[in-house]
Design a protein that fits this description.
By secondary structure, the protein is of the alpha/beta class. It has 9 helices and 13 strands. The two termini are 34 Å apart. It binds NADP nicotinamide-adenine-dinucleotide phosphate. NADP nicotinamide-adenine-dinucleotide phosphate binds next to strand 4 and helix 5.
Length: 247
């Protein structure tokens, strides 16, 4: 199959590209840095020409509900319209566990994105995952005050991005399923502990201060609204084993 990956240079997107190639498919990487802009549609038709399927792992780095909604609505409408024009047979969206229980901040955009996808003009599958193990590094990059690392508390049951990618690569080969079973990692963690371990693993010895960030999204995460339900698939290594394997 020829599979186009939106956000194919990102944290999970890179892993998805590797996973679909490992299964013998051709991958087309769609990101602004490869000439495809889901905000404007620039480069999209050329990238999707001949594609059998699309996986959407695009994202915007924001905690603003307004910015997140604007990005995900436009990007989803643009991508799905392009997929329909190209005759794509299956479009798969990566979403996040619990967004409808906690529809604030960045998650407000994910709710808007899913709403667009439920009206998809091409057969589609939406799968929700919990936070990635890599999320610790993503948040630590945004929460540094000079030498001080802030480590926000949040309840999460993280999963390795590579596990998410392998699961998506399998789903995209199957018929469209609408809403698929949620996926999560093996056990609950406190994001603050993950960030501390991540920072130390990087060899940084400075202060790491656990904090409870204001804002509805982070309050919701501390209340456990991003945790998976009992029916979610549990996949891959614990955060500690994943981190140890990174050498
Ligand atoms: N991070 C997590 O813990 C987590 C957990 C569960 C689900 N998810 C979901 O997984 C998806 C990917 O998240 P991520 O953390 O891997 O994202 P990321 O590392 O921030 O990567 C974002 C990707 O989107 C691309 N992109 C951004 N704006 C674009 C535009 N206008 N047009 C085309 N491409 C654009 C970026 O490339 P350019 O900058 O070159 O355009 C990049 O490839 C998101 O839907 C997210 O909600 C994330």
């Amino acid at each position: 199959m020829r599979i186009a990956v939106a956000g194919g240079t990102g944290t999970v997107g890179r892993e998805i590209v590797a996973a679909v190639r490992a299964r013998g498919h051709e991958a087309v990487v769609m990101a602004r840095s490869t000439g495809v802009d889901l905000g404007t549609g620039q480069g999209l038709d050329a990238a999707l020409a001949g594609a059998d399927a699309v996986i959407d792992a695009s994202s915007i780095g924001t905690m603003s509900a307004e910015e997140s909604r604007a990005f995900f609505r436009t990007a989803s409408e643009t991508l799905l319209a392009g997929a329909a024009r190209a005759g794509v047979g299956h479009a798969v969206l990566l979403s996040i566990v619990g967004i409808d229980r906690n529809p604030h901040g960045y998650y407000a955009g994910k709710v808007a994105q899913e709403a667009v996808w439920t009206q998809s003009p091409v057969p589609s599958t939406i799968v929700r995952a919990t936070q990635f193990h890599e999320f610790a590094g993503q948040v630590s990059g945004q929460a540094r005050l000079g030498p001080i690392q802030l480590a926000p508390h949040a309840r999460t049951q993280p999963i390795a991005a590579a596990e998410v990618a392998a699961h998506l690569a399998g789903l995209v080969e199957a018929p469209a399923a609408g809403r698929a079973t949620d996926i999560a990692g093996p056990r609950e963690e406190d994001l603050a502990d993950m960030i501390r371990a991540w920072v130390r693993h990087q060899g940084r010895r400075g202060p790491v201060i656990a904090v409870s960030l204001p804002g509805a999204q982070m309050r919701g995460m501390r209340a456990g609204l991003a945790l998976p339900g009992p029916d979610a698939l549990r996949l891959g290594p614990t955060f500690a084993d994943w981190l140890a394997d990174r050498g």
